[in-house]
């Protein structure tokens, strides 16, 4: 790996020297920019899937309903050969190929999507994990068993061909099997995996959990950071840096500190990557924003981004917009009024108003603080006091920034900070409370913080929603806005309040956890599905809006429910809230649910087999 890095380093220096010697045409500048990126992200297949004329031409022809389809298709020939054939097609068609020409080209040179992964039943899957015994209500217990069964349907393993011929795929090779989110998300995703891994740990699937963590470690070792998801086309964006917290979760369940200590060098590397690539200054403090270093529209939503960018006149303005939108994707909240800053400095707007890089995000800063604390803890286990001091100091610095810039005495909560207008953004997002979950607050202030935060919750009427706390209080049609509710955000709120530990905070935490469990259960009883997102306004309703249809599966939703069934299963029952029909009927429905899940699995299995 280091030899590879050296070669790429030399190559890119050579390119830079060549560029300096040349006249600085826009083309040379562009190549220089790409050379810099290539140093970090040296995948051959990026020429096809990340940027360039082929990607542009095919994605703008809109051959498929979902733009992600094309970039998930495998190559039949090498990237070089494919590009050569594409150039030949363009030359033959006077640079204006018809939609049919392009469809024929894709049919000839690309294989079906989703062929890189095969179904995989995790070998450490347990028929009856102990968490099930924590659940009193028989229907909820059956649901816990169903959710545990779903891990088997979401298991995937890469085919050997991906390892042997990585250049032919957009997927990034990883050695161990993974649990995917589900729906259109047929590869692993970074932040999703945190809640999936916790669910696996509660399901006693320690090998699968460790394997997924090892995959992420191997990615950091190869390319220096973890992309948003397991595809080369997510090349310039990461996601909430949760790898260190994944290792911490694994250690909390297994006590395997040796694993954590062995991972330390890689965890530090990822931490430094974030610190080096996401820093901004506010009120004299170093703080962190989500940002992206690639060029061009999102490959998986290419034509959509080009359309939205039409209102920008210059190439620079379009490119800046693409960066903002990819930075929004890095935050995981793609998309939300949380990132909109209009000319008046408010959040009224649409996607073209997105300014992610100018919003200091509470969650990212609290998370980097947490990373530094966990790394210090692991170093302390290793007896490396120098490193402990180094990382405690880093944590303390971030904490000072959070307190000085993000804590807002008036609002009684942490708020994102707008760098353009140099002011806090007083809009509710669950992440405003994320320092509670990640311990990014001064423990001696617990009582005071608890009182202010509970007032903040009351003032924003956050307890009024039957289906969970919405992501924002603004309905824009974007999927990370009202009325959508997301499992990881409920998790941050509930675990944060529980962590705060005052009686009032704990009571609200419990209430919200129970509500979430029962509302998810209602949706499951009605439709036999677990959803990617739910609906705050409807008890048992699922979410919608945004760029694609609602997805089922669903990794992080299942993970959060399994954790809360474990923690609250002795108390939560259907008579406590709104709850659905008689126990016997729901039990029958639940059994039907298992049957239909099994049937779907068989059907999916067949289709996948046919595809090979
Ligand atoms: C900004 O404020 C002006 C004056 O109040 C108003 O006319 C305009 O519509 C506002 N723009 C947005 C995007 O809210
Ligand atoms: C989005 O907002 C911009 C600027 O306020 C406006 O020009 C554009 O028409 C809006 N786009 C849509 C799709 O509403
Ligand atoms: C926490 O608060 C206490 C009391 O207000 C203060 O003495 C201490 O310095 C604070 N600690 C940090 C790390 O800010
Ligand atoms: C359901 O919860 C209520 C309130 O906590 C409790 O009184 C009741 O006994 C519980 N029922 C079952 C079947 O656990
Ligand atoms: C684009 C960019 O600034 N990349 C930097 C990210 O951080 C690493 C070190 O962790 C640098 O080597 C890159 O240059």
UniProtKB/TrEMBL annotation:
<keyword id="KW-0472">Membrane</keyword>
<keyword id="KW-0378">Hydrolase</keyword>
<comment type="similarity">
    <text>Belongs to the glycosyl hydrolase 37 family.</text>
</comment>
<dbReference type="InterPro" id="IPR018232">
    <property type="entry name" value="Glyco_hydro_37_CS"/>
</dbReference>
<keyword id="KW-0326">Glycosidase</keyword>
<dbReference type="GO" id="GO:0005993">
    <property type="term" value="P:trehalose catabolic process"/>
</dbReference>
<keyword id="KW-0325">Glycoprotein</keyword>
<protein>
    <recommendedName>
        <fullName>Trehalase</fullName>
        <ecNumber>3.2.1.28</ecNumber>
    </recommendedName>
</protein>
<dbReference type="GO" id="GO:0004555">
    <property type="term" value="F:alpha,alpha-trehalase activity"/>
</dbReference>
<keyword id="KW-1133">Transmembrane helix</keyword>
<keyword id="KW-0732">Signal</keyword>
<dbReference type="InterPro" id="IPR001661">
    <property type="entry name" value="Glyco_hydro_37"/>
</dbReference>
<dbReference type="Pfam" id="PF01204">
    <property type="entry name" value="Trehalase"/>
</dbReference>
<keyword id="KW-0812">Transmembrane</keyword>
<dbReference type="InterPro" id="IPR012341">
    <property type="entry name" value="6hp_glycosidase-like_sf"/>
</dbReference>
<feature type="signal peptide">
    <location>
        <begin position="1"/>
        <end position="23"/>
    </location>
</feature>
<feature type="transmembrane region" description="Helical">
    <location>
        <begin position="588"/>
        <end position="609"/>
    </location>
</feature>
<dbReference type="InterPro" id="IPR008928">
    <property type="entry name" value="6-hairpin_glycosidase_sf"/>
</dbReference>
């Amino acid at each position: 790996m280091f030899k590879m890095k050296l070669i790429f380093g030399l190559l890119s220096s050579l390119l830079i020297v060549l560029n300096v010697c040349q006249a600085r045409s826009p083309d040379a500048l562009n190549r220089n920019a790409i050379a810099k990126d290539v140093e970090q992200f040296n995948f051959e297949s990026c020429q096809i899937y990340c940027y360039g004329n082929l990607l542009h031409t095919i994605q703008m022809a809109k051959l498929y309903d979902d733009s992600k389809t094309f970039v998930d298709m495998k190559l039949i020939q090498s990237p070089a050969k494919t590009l050569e054939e594409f150039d030949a097609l363009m030359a033959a068609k006077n640079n204006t190929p018809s939609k049919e020409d392009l469809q024929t080209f894709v049919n000839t040179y690309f294989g079906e999507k989703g062929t890189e992964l095969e179904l995989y039943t995790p070998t450490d899957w347990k028929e009856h994990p102990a968490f099930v015994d924590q659940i009193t209500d028989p229907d909820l217990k059956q649901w816990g068993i169903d959710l545990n069964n779903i891990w088997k349907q979401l298991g995937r393993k890469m085919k050997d061909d991906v390892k042997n011929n990585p250049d032919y795929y957009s997927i990034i090779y990883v050695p161990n099997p993974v649990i995917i989110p589900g729906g259109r998300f047929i590869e692993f995703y970074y932040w999703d995996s945190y809640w999936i891994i916790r669910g696996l740990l509660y399901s006693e699937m320690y090998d699968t959990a460790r394997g997924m963590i090892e995959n992420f470690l191997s990615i950091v070792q190869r390319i220096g950071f973890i992309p948003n998801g397991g595809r080369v086309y997510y090349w310039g964006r990461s996601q909430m840096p949760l790898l260190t917290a994944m290792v911490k979760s694994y250690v909390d369940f297994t006590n395997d500190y040796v694993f954590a200590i062995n991972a330390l060098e890689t965890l530090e590397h990822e931490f430094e990557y974030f610190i080096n690539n996401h820093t901004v200054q506010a009120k004299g403090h170093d703080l962190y924003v989500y940002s992206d270093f690639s060029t061009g529209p999102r490959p998986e939503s290419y034509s959509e981004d080009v359309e939205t960018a039409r209102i920008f006149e210059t190439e620079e303005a379009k490119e800046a917009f693409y960066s903002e939108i990819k930075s929004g994707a890095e935050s995981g909240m793609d998309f939300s009024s949380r990132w909109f800053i209009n000319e008046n400095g408010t959040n009224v707007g649409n996607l073209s108003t997105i300014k992610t890089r100018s919003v200091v995000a509470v969650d990212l800063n609290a998370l980097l603080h947490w990373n530094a604390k966990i790394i210090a803890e692991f170093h302390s286990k290793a007896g490396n006091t120098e490193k402990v001091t180094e990382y405690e100091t880093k944590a303390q610095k971030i904490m000072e920034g959070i307190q000085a810039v993000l804590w807002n005495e008036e609002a009684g909560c942490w708020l994102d900070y707008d760098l353009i207008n140099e002011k806090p953004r007083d809009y509710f997002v669950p992440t405003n409370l994320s320092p509670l979950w990640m311990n990014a607050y001064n423990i001696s202030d617990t009582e005071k913080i608890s009182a202010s935060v509970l007032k903040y919750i009351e003032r924003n009427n956050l307890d009024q929603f039957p289906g969970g706390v919405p992501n924002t209080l603004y309905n824009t049609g974007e999927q990370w806005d009202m009325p959508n509710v997301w499992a990881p955000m409920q998790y941050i709120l509930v675990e944060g309040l529980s962590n705060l530990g005052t009686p009032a905070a704990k009571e609200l935490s419990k209430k919200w956890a129970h509500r979430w469990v029962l509302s998810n259960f209602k949706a499951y009883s009605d439709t036999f599905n677990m959803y990617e997102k739910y609906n705050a306004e409807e008890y048992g309703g699922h979410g919608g809006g945004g760029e694609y249809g609602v997805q089922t599966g669903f990794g992080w939703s299942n993970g959060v429910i399994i954790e809360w069934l474990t923690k609250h299963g002795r108390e939560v029952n259907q008579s406590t809230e709104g709850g659905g029909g008689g126990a016997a009927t729901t039990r029958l429905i639940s059994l039907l649910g298992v049957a239909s899940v099994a049937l779907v699995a068989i059907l999916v299995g067949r289709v996948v087999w046919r595809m090979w």
